[in-house]
Amino acid sequence: MHLAKQAEGGESQKCQKHPGMDILLYCKEEACQQNICTRCLTKDHQKHEVVGILEGQRNGLAIKAEMVMEHLIHVQSTAQSVQRNLAENFAESTRKLAEMKEEQKKLSDILTQVDEKVTTVKEIVKAGPSLAGDNWRQNRKS
Known about the structure:
Blueprint: E1 4-6, E2 13-15, E3 25-27, E4 34-36, H1 38-43, E5 50-52, H2 53-127, H3 129-141
Antiparallel strand pairs: 1-2, 3-4, 3-5
């Protein structure tokens, strides 16, 4: 690729491959697509399609703008897909959270029942063997 070097004082660009030659042309060949001087044209770009540098720059900008638009469309499509996935994941997470809260409530209710039964057993144990004995004797008589 031939690089152009801007001359001092805002003059035309100079060809780095051929110092002293002004860059006046643009090679449209797909493999090239670069600014060139007339010497580059006669040596390296003889059978290539060449236009004036301004038209080449406009064409280059148009091509780049088209590439940017294609990329933008792709990015927008990807963003929409990500947004849909996030919404689906959020809905699924919300549903699972509700299920977990329901399970937590059931477990809390079970723990409350267990605590009540433990308290009842503790009260029976505190009452002592006499209460247990009296209950045992009454059950034997029946």
